[in-house]
Amino acid sequence: MPPYKKLNISVFEHESLRAGERGFTVSHLETLQRYFGEKGTPSFTLIHNGIKFTEYVGVLKVGDISIEVLPKIDRSETDTEKWQNILINMLRQAGLMKVRTSSSTSLKIKSNSILDIYFELFVTECEQLLHQGLVKKYRKKEGNLFSLKGALQFNKHISQNLTHQERFYTRHTTYDREHPLNQILFKTILLLQTINNSPALTSRINGLLLNFSNIPDIKVSEALFQRLSFDRKTEPYRNAIKIARLLLLNYHPDVTSGQNHVLALMFDMNHLWETWVLKVLHKELYYKGYSVEGQIKERFWESHEQHKKYIKPDIIITNPKGKKCIIDTKWKTPSLGKPSDEDLRQIFAYLLHFKADNGILLYPGEREIRIRGSYIINGGSCEMVYVPVIKDDNLVYSGLIDSILFT
Predict the structure, then answer these.
(1) Using CA atoms, how far apart are residues 315 and 311, in angstroms rounded to an integer?
(2) Element (H, E) at 373
(3) pLDDT mean across residues, the chain
(4) Model pTM?
(5) What is the pLDDT of residues 297-307, one digit of tens each?
(6) pLDDT of residue 400
(7) In what order do the strands lie in the sheet with 16-18?
(8) Which fold has domain 289-404?
(9) How buried is 233 (Cβ within 10 angstroms: 0-12 exposed, 13-18 middle, 19+ buried)?
(10) Any idea where the domains of the chain sit in the sequence?
Protein backbone atom coordinates (compact mmCIF):
# COMPACT_ATOMS: atom_id res chain seq x y z
CA MET A 1 0.00 0.00 0.00
CA PRO A 2 1.47 3.39 -0.97
CA PRO A 3 2.29 5.90 1.74
CA TYR A 4 -0.12 8.79 2.10
CA LYS A 5 2.61 11.34 1.79
CA LYS A 6 1.46 13.90 -0.69
CA LEU A 7 2.78 17.21 -1.92
CA ASN A 8 1.24 19.37 -4.63
CA ILE A 9 3.36 22.07 -6.23
CA SER A 10 1.59 24.62 -8.41
CA VAL A 11 3.47 26.59 -11.06
CA PHE A 12 2.44 28.56 -14.14
CA GLU A 13 3.45 27.87 -17.73
CA HIS A 14 6.92 29.16 -18.68
CA GLU A 15 7.99 29.26 -15.01
CA SER A 16 11.09 27.55 -13.63
CA LEU A 17 11.40 25.12 -10.72
CA ARG A 18 14.77 24.37 -9.14
CA ALA A 19 15.90 21.64 -6.76
CA GLY A 20 15.45 22.74 -3.17
CA GLU A 21 12.37 24.83 -3.89
CA ARG A 22 8.92 23.96 -2.47
CA GLY A 23 9.73 20.31 -1.77
CA PHE A 24 11.24 19.65 -5.22
CA THR A 25 14.38 17.67 -4.38
CA VAL A 26 17.54 16.67 -6.24
CA SER A 27 16.11 13.14 -6.47
CA HIS A 28 12.99 14.46 -8.23
CA LEU A 29 15.15 16.53 -10.60
CA GLU A 30 17.37 13.55 -11.47
CA THR A 31 14.26 11.50 -12.25
CA LEU A 32 12.95 14.18 -14.62
CA GLN A 33 16.40 14.47 -16.21
CA ARG A 34 16.30 10.74 -16.98
CA TYR A 35 12.74 11.11 -18.25
CA PHE A 36 13.89 13.98 -20.48
CA GLY A 37 16.67 11.75 -21.84
CA GLU A 38 18.08 12.29 -25.32
CA LYS A 39 14.77 12.79 -27.09
CA GLY A 40 13.50 15.46 -24.73
CA THR A 41 9.90 16.31 -24.02
CA PRO A 42 7.81 19.28 -25.20
CA SER A 43 6.45 19.98 -21.72
CA PHE A 44 9.68 21.28 -20.13
CA THR A 45 13.34 22.02 -20.77
CA LEU A 46 16.37 21.45 -18.55
CA ILE A 47 18.08 24.41 -16.91
CA HIS A 48 20.84 24.67 -14.30
CA ASN A 49 19.72 22.75 -11.20
CA GLY A 50 16.11 22.67 -12.37
CA ILE A 51 13.55 22.63 -15.16
CA LYS A 52 11.65 25.29 -17.07
CA PHE A 53 8.12 24.63 -18.23
CA THR A 54 6.83 25.46 -21.70
CA GLU A 55 3.33 26.19 -23.00
CA TYR A 56 2.19 22.71 -21.86
CA VAL A 57 -0.15 22.58 -18.87
CA GLY A 58 -1.42 19.73 -16.71
CA VAL A 59 0.30 17.62 -14.09
CA LEU A 60 3.64 15.86 -13.66
CA LYS A 61 3.64 13.24 -10.92
CA VAL A 62 7.18 12.37 -9.82
CA GLY A 63 7.25 9.85 -7.02
CA ASP A 64 5.50 11.40 -4.02
CA ILE A 65 4.96 14.88 -5.50
CA SER A 66 2.59 16.27 -8.12
CA ILE A 67 3.61 19.36 -10.08
CA GLU A 68 0.59 21.14 -11.53
CA VAL A 69 1.42 23.44 -14.43
CA LEU A 70 -1.34 26.01 -14.83
CA PRO A 71 -2.17 28.40 -17.69
CA LYS A 72 -2.18 32.15 -17.25
CA ILE A 73 -2.68 35.30 -19.29
CA ASP A 74 -1.27 38.03 -17.06
CA ARG A 75 2.36 37.74 -16.00
CA SER A 76 1.45 39.16 -12.60
CA GLU A 77 -1.15 36.44 -12.01
CA THR A 78 -0.61 34.54 -8.76
CA ASP A 79 -4.05 33.04 -7.99
CA THR A 80 -3.36 29.35 -8.55
CA GLU A 81 -6.79 28.18 -7.40
CA LYS A 82 -8.51 30.40 -9.96
CA TRP A 83 -6.43 29.10 -12.84
CA GLN A 84 -6.72 25.52 -11.68
CA ASN A 85 -10.51 25.83 -11.87
CA ILE A 86 -10.23 27.43 -15.30
CA LEU A 87 -7.99 24.62 -16.56
CA ILE A 88 -10.31 21.91 -15.21
CA ASN A 89 -13.36 23.56 -16.79
CA MET A 90 -11.55 23.97 -20.09
CA LEU A 91 -10.47 20.31 -20.10
CA ARG A 92 -14.06 19.23 -19.42
CA GLN A 93 -15.64 21.49 -22.02
CA ALA A 94 -13.02 20.50 -24.60
CA GLY A 95 -13.86 16.82 -24.02
CA LEU A 96 -10.51 15.89 -22.42
CA MET A 97 -12.02 15.28 -18.98
CA LYS A 98 -15.39 13.86 -19.88
CA VAL A 99 -17.93 12.98 -17.19
CA ARG A 100 -20.98 10.94 -18.06
CA THR A 101 -24.30 12.25 -16.80
CA SER A 102 -24.87 9.04 -14.85
CA SER A 103 -21.56 9.34 -13.02
CA SER A 104 -21.29 13.10 -12.56
CA THR A 105 -23.89 13.14 -9.77
CA SER A 106 -21.90 10.65 -7.69
CA LEU A 107 -18.53 12.27 -8.39
CA LYS A 108 -17.25 13.95 -5.22
CA ILE A 109 -14.12 15.95 -5.90
CA LYS A 110 -12.50 16.66 -2.54
CA SER A 111 -8.96 17.12 -3.79
CA ASN A 112 -7.33 20.12 -5.37
CA SER A 113 -5.24 17.86 -7.60
CA ILE A 114 -6.04 17.57 -11.30
CA LEU A 115 -4.48 14.09 -11.21
CA ASP A 116 -6.78 12.98 -8.39
CA ILE A 117 -9.74 14.15 -10.46
CA TYR A 118 -8.67 11.89 -13.32
CA PHE A 119 -8.18 9.01 -10.89
CA GLU A 120 -11.62 9.50 -9.38
CA LEU A 121 -13.24 9.82 -12.79
CA PHE A 122 -11.71 6.50 -13.83
CA VAL A 123 -12.72 4.73 -10.60
CA THR A 124 -16.27 6.07 -10.90
CA GLU A 125 -16.53 4.92 -14.52
CA CYS A 126 -15.34 1.42 -13.56
CA GLU A 127 -17.84 1.24 -10.70
CA GLN A 128 -20.60 2.16 -13.15
CA LEU A 129 -19.47 -0.62 -15.51
CA LEU A 130 -19.45 -3.16 -12.68
CA HIS A 131 -22.93 -2.06 -11.66
CA GLN A 132 -24.14 -2.65 -15.23
CA GLY A 133 -22.16 -5.89 -15.53
CA LEU A 134 -18.84 -6.32 -17.33
CA VAL A 135 -19.23 -7.30 -20.96
CA LYS A 136 -18.41 -10.88 -21.97
CA LYS A 137 -17.12 -11.90 -25.39
CA TYR A 138 -16.38 -15.09 -27.31
CA ARG A 139 -12.72 -16.03 -27.75
CA LYS A 140 -10.66 -18.98 -28.95
CA LYS A 141 -8.94 -20.98 -26.23
CA GLU A 142 -6.51 -23.90 -26.44
CA GLY A 143 -5.54 -26.30 -23.65
CA ASN A 144 -6.26 -29.47 -21.71
CA LEU A 145 -9.79 -30.31 -20.58
CA PHE A 146 -11.28 -33.31 -18.75
CA SER A 147 -14.02 -33.57 -21.35
CA LEU A 148 -13.92 -33.35 -25.12
CA LYS A 149 -15.00 -29.88 -26.15
CA GLY A 150 -14.35 -28.26 -29.51
CA ALA A 151 -11.67 -29.62 -31.87
CA LEU A 152 -9.13 -32.14 -30.62
CA GLN A 153 -5.55 -31.00 -31.36
CA PHE A 154 -4.19 -34.48 -32.05
CA ASN A 155 -0.42 -33.85 -32.10
CA LYS A 156 -0.40 -31.85 -28.86
CA HIS A 157 -2.86 -34.26 -27.28
CA ILE A 158 -0.49 -37.17 -27.94
CA SER A 159 2.61 -35.32 -26.74
CA GLN A 160 1.06 -33.97 -23.52
CA ASN A 161 -1.49 -36.64 -22.56
CA LEU A 162 0.19 -39.94 -23.32
CA THR A 163 0.07 -40.88 -19.64
CA HIS A 164 -3.10 -38.86 -18.90
CA GLN A 165 -5.86 -40.56 -20.83
CA GLU A 166 -8.49 -38.68 -18.81
CA ARG A 167 -7.49 -35.36 -20.48
CA PHE A 168 -8.12 -33.91 -23.95
CA TYR A 169 -6.06 -31.17 -25.59
CA THR A 170 -8.59 -29.12 -27.55
CA ARG A 171 -9.14 -25.79 -29.27
CA HIS A 172 -12.55 -24.45 -28.36
CA THR A 173 -14.61 -21.30 -27.99
CA THR A 174 -15.31 -19.82 -24.59
CA TYR A 175 -17.52 -16.92 -23.49
CA ASP A 176 -16.08 -14.86 -20.65
CA ARG A 177 -14.82 -11.44 -19.55
CA GLU A 178 -11.25 -11.99 -20.76
CA HIS A 179 -10.94 -9.50 -23.62
CA PRO A 180 -8.81 -6.36 -24.25
CA LEU A 181 -11.30 -3.83 -22.86
CA ASN A 182 -11.49 -5.50 -19.45
CA GLN A 183 -7.75 -6.23 -19.50
CA ILE A 184 -6.98 -2.53 -20.08
CA LEU A 185 -9.23 -1.54 -17.18
CA PHE A 186 -7.54 -4.11 -14.92
CA LYS A 187 -4.07 -2.88 -15.86
CA THR A 188 -5.10 0.71 -15.10
CA ILE A 189 -6.52 -0.30 -11.72
CA LEU A 190 -3.19 -1.97 -10.89
CA LEU A 191 -1.42 1.25 -11.89
CA LEU A 192 -3.66 3.32 -9.62
CA GLN A 193 -2.95 0.95 -6.75
CA THR A 194 0.74 1.74 -7.22
CA ILE A 195 0.67 5.53 -7.67
CA ASN A 196 -2.48 6.66 -5.84
CA ASN A 197 -1.84 8.79 -2.75
CA SER A 198 -5.44 9.57 -1.86
CA PRO A 199 -6.83 7.68 1.17
CA ALA A 200 -10.36 8.36 -0.08
CA LEU A 201 -9.74 6.32 -3.23
CA THR A 202 -7.75 3.43 -1.77
CA SER A 203 -10.70 1.32 -0.58
CA ARG A 204 -12.55 1.88 -3.86
CA ILE A 205 -9.51 0.81 -5.89
CA ASN A 206 -9.12 -2.31 -3.75
CA GLY A 207 -12.80 -3.06 -4.27
CA LEU A 208 -12.35 -2.87 -8.03
CA LEU A 209 -9.39 -5.26 -7.88
CA LEU A 210 -11.58 -7.95 -6.29
CA ASN A 211 -13.86 -7.85 -9.34
CA PHE A 212 -11.01 -7.93 -11.87
CA SER A 213 -8.71 -10.39 -10.09
CA ASN A 214 -9.23 -13.27 -12.54
CA ILE A 215 -8.43 -11.20 -15.65
CA PRO A 216 -4.88 -11.67 -17.04
CA ASP A 217 -2.43 -8.83 -17.61
CA ILE A 218 -1.93 -7.29 -21.04
CA LYS A 219 0.85 -5.32 -22.74
CA VAL A 220 -0.44 -1.90 -23.76
CA SER A 221 0.71 0.27 -26.64
CA GLU A 222 -0.67 2.98 -28.88
CA ALA A 223 -1.36 0.32 -31.52
CA LEU A 224 -3.55 -1.64 -29.08
CA PHE A 225 -5.77 1.38 -28.43
CA GLN A 226 -6.00 2.15 -32.15
CA ARG A 227 -7.28 -1.38 -32.81
CA LEU A 228 -10.11 -1.08 -30.30
CA SER A 229 -13.66 -0.70 -31.55
CA PHE A 230 -16.89 -0.09 -29.70
CA ASP A 231 -20.35 -1.46 -30.41
CA ARG A 232 -23.72 -1.13 -28.71
CA LYS A 233 -22.67 -3.38 -25.83
CA THR A 234 -19.22 -1.86 -25.26
CA GLU A 235 -20.01 1.83 -25.82
CA PRO A 236 -20.29 2.43 -22.02
CA TYR A 237 -16.57 1.53 -21.83
CA ARG A 238 -15.49 4.47 -23.99
CA ASN A 239 -14.94 7.07 -21.26
CA ALA A 240 -13.06 4.67 -18.97
CA ILE A 241 -10.85 3.49 -21.85
CA LYS A 242 -10.13 7.09 -22.83
CA ILE A 243 -8.85 7.86 -19.33
CA ALA A 244 -6.99 4.51 -19.17
CA ARG A 245 -5.20 5.38 -22.41
CA LEU A 246 -4.16 8.74 -21.02
CA LEU A 247 -2.80 7.18 -17.81
CA LEU A 248 -1.15 4.05 -19.20
CA LEU A 249 0.62 5.61 -22.19
CA ASN A 250 1.96 8.52 -20.15
CA TYR A 251 3.26 6.44 -17.24
CA HIS A 252 7.04 5.92 -17.06
CA PRO A 253 8.18 3.57 -14.25
CA ASP A 254 11.41 4.27 -12.41
CA VAL A 255 13.57 1.26 -13.29
CA THR A 256 16.50 2.43 -11.18
CA SER A 257 15.18 2.91 -7.64
CA GLY A 258 11.56 1.90 -8.20
CA GLN A 259 10.31 4.92 -6.24
CA ASN A 260 10.24 8.01 -8.46
CA HIS A 261 7.81 6.91 -11.17
CA VAL A 262 6.73 9.62 -13.63
CA LEU A 263 3.19 10.16 -14.85
CA ALA A 264 2.92 13.09 -17.26
CA LEU A 265 -0.57 14.30 -18.18
CA MET A 266 0.37 17.41 -20.12
CA PHE A 267 -1.64 19.31 -22.73
CA ASP A 268 -0.46 21.84 -25.30
CA MET A 269 -2.21 25.03 -24.20
CA ASN A 270 -2.38 26.33 -27.75
CA HIS A 271 -4.17 23.17 -28.90
CA LEU A 272 -6.40 23.14 -25.80
CA TRP A 273 -7.44 26.76 -26.38
CA GLU A 274 -8.19 26.02 -30.04
CA THR A 275 -10.18 22.88 -29.16
CA TRP A 276 -12.17 24.69 -26.46
CA VAL A 277 -13.03 27.58 -28.80
CA LEU A 278 -14.07 25.16 -31.57
CA LYS A 279 -16.30 23.12 -29.22
CA VAL A 280 -17.98 26.22 -27.79
CA LEU A 281 -18.60 27.83 -31.19
CA HIS A 282 -20.00 24.64 -32.68
CA LYS A 283 -22.31 24.12 -29.71
CA GLU A 284 -23.61 27.69 -29.65
CA LEU A 285 -23.78 28.49 -33.38
CA TYR A 286 -25.00 25.23 -34.90
CA TYR A 287 -28.62 25.94 -34.07
CA LYS A 288 -28.30 29.50 -35.41
CA GLY A 289 -27.61 28.12 -38.89
CA TYR A 290 -23.83 28.67 -38.83
CA SER A 291 -21.33 26.09 -40.05
CA VAL A 292 -18.29 25.72 -37.78
CA GLU A 293 -15.36 23.61 -39.04
CA GLY A 294 -11.92 23.06 -37.61
CA GLN A 295 -8.57 22.17 -39.15
CA ILE A 296 -9.68 22.00 -42.81
CA LYS A 297 -6.56 20.94 -44.69
CA GLU A 298 -6.16 21.93 -48.35
CA ARG A 299 -3.21 21.84 -50.74
CA PHE A 300 -2.02 25.29 -51.82
CA TRP A 301 1.37 24.58 -53.45
CA GLU A 302 2.90 21.72 -55.44
CA SER A 303 6.25 21.34 -57.20
CA HIS A 304 7.04 19.43 -60.37
CA GLU A 305 8.72 16.82 -58.14
CA GLN A 306 5.35 16.27 -56.44
CA HIS A 307 6.35 18.05 -53.23
CA LYS A 308 3.16 19.39 -51.66
CA LYS A 309 2.39 22.08 -49.12
CA TYR A 310 -0.88 22.42 -47.25
CA ILE A 311 -2.77 25.23 -45.58
CA LYS A 312 -4.85 24.54 -42.47
CA PRO A 313 -6.67 27.33 -40.61
CA ASP A 314 -7.81 26.69 -37.05
CA ILE A 315 -11.52 27.44 -37.55
CA ILE A 316 -13.74 28.43 -40.49
CA ILE A 317 -17.21 29.79 -39.76
CA THR A 318 -19.81 30.20 -42.50
CA ASN A 319 -22.96 32.15 -41.72
CA PRO A 320 -26.42 31.29 -43.17
CA LYS A 321 -25.77 33.64 -46.11
CA GLY A 322 -22.53 31.87 -47.06
CA LYS A 323 -20.18 34.55 -45.76
CA LYS A 324 -16.97 33.13 -44.28
CA CYS A 325 -14.83 34.14 -41.33
CA ILE A 326 -11.41 32.63 -40.57
CA ILE A 327 -10.41 32.37 -36.90
CA ASP A 328 -6.82 31.81 -35.83
CA THR A 329 -6.61 31.09 -32.09
CA LYS A 330 -3.59 32.35 -30.16
CA TRP A 331 -2.90 31.52 -26.52
CA LYS A 332 -0.56 34.41 -25.84
CA THR A 333 -0.40 38.12 -25.21
CA PRO A 334 0.82 39.93 -28.33
CA SER A 335 3.92 42.06 -27.99
CA LEU A 336 3.03 45.72 -27.50
CA GLY A 337 -0.64 44.87 -28.02
CA LYS A 338 -0.26 44.64 -31.81
CA PRO A 339 -0.51 41.68 -34.21
CA SER A 340 2.77 40.33 -35.54
CA ASP A 341 3.61 40.56 -39.24
CA GLU A 342 3.65 36.76 -39.42
CA ASP A 343 0.13 36.44 -37.97
CA LEU A 344 -1.26 39.09 -40.34
CA ARG A 345 0.32 37.39 -43.36
CA GLN A 346 -1.09 34.05 -42.24
CA ILE A 347 -4.65 35.44 -42.02
CA PHE A 348 -4.18 37.13 -45.41
CA ALA A 349 -3.25 33.79 -47.03
CA TYR A 350 -6.30 32.15 -45.43
CA LEU A 351 -8.64 34.87 -46.73
CA LEU A 352 -7.33 34.55 -50.28
CA HIS A 353 -7.33 30.75 -50.41
CA PHE A 354 -10.72 30.16 -48.80
CA LYS A 355 -12.35 33.28 -50.33
CA ALA A 356 -13.30 34.65 -46.92
CA ASP A 357 -14.20 38.25 -46.15
CA ASN A 358 -12.73 38.68 -42.70
CA GLY A 359 -10.43 37.01 -40.22
CA ILE A 360 -9.99 37.11 -36.47
CA LEU A 361 -6.86 36.67 -34.39
CA LEU A 362 -8.45 35.37 -31.19
CA TYR A 363 -6.66 35.93 -27.88
CA PRO A 364 -7.94 35.15 -24.38
CA GLY A 365 -8.62 38.07 -22.08
CA GLU A 366 -10.54 39.19 -19.03
CA ARG A 367 -12.14 42.07 -20.96
CA GLU A 368 -12.94 42.63 -24.62
CA ILE A 369 -10.51 44.62 -26.76
CA ARG A 370 -10.89 44.89 -30.54
CA ILE A 371 -8.33 46.18 -33.00
CA ARG A 372 -9.67 46.23 -36.55
CA GLY A 373 -7.72 46.71 -39.77
CA SER A 374 -8.10 46.10 -43.50
CA TYR A 375 -5.73 44.67 -46.08
CA ILE A 376 -4.79 47.12 -48.79
CA ILE A 377 -4.96 44.69 -51.73
CA ASN A 378 -8.31 42.90 -51.48
CA GLY A 379 -10.10 44.94 -48.85
CA GLY A 380 -10.47 41.96 -46.52
CA SER A 381 -10.37 42.73 -42.81
CA CYS A 382 -8.48 41.25 -39.89
CA GLU A 383 -9.39 41.89 -36.28
CA MET A 384 -7.40 41.32 -33.15
CA VAL A 385 -9.96 40.30 -30.52
CA TYR A 386 -9.25 39.79 -26.85
CA VAL A 387 -12.19 37.63 -25.84
CA PRO A 388 -13.56 37.99 -22.27
CA VAL A 389 -13.93 34.27 -21.61
CA ILE A 390 -12.69 34.46 -18.03
CA LYS A 391 -14.79 35.84 -15.21
CA ASP A 392 -13.74 35.37 -11.60
CA ASP A 393 -12.51 31.76 -11.61
CA ASN A 394 -14.82 30.40 -14.32
CA LEU A 395 -14.95 30.18 -18.08
CA VAL A 396 -17.76 32.04 -19.79
CA TYR A 397 -18.28 32.14 -23.51
CA SER A 398 -20.97 34.76 -24.09
CA GLY A 399 -18.20 37.20 -24.99
CA LEU A 400 -16.73 34.69 -27.41
CA ILE A 401 -20.04 34.24 -29.24
CA ASP A 402 -20.72 37.99 -29.37
CA SER A 403 -17.25 38.62 -30.76
CA ILE A 404 -17.59 36.41 -33.84
CA LEU A 405 -21.29 36.74 -34.76
CA PHE A 406 -21.56 38.40 -38.14
CA THR A 407 -24.22 38.78 -40.85
Answers:
(1) 12
(2) strand 369-374
(3) 83
(4) 0.82
(5) 888 888 877 78
(6) 67
(7) 16-18, 50-53, 44-47
(8) Trna Endonuclease; Chain: A, domain 1 (3.40.1350)
(9) exposed
(10) 7-134+179-269, 137-176, 289-404
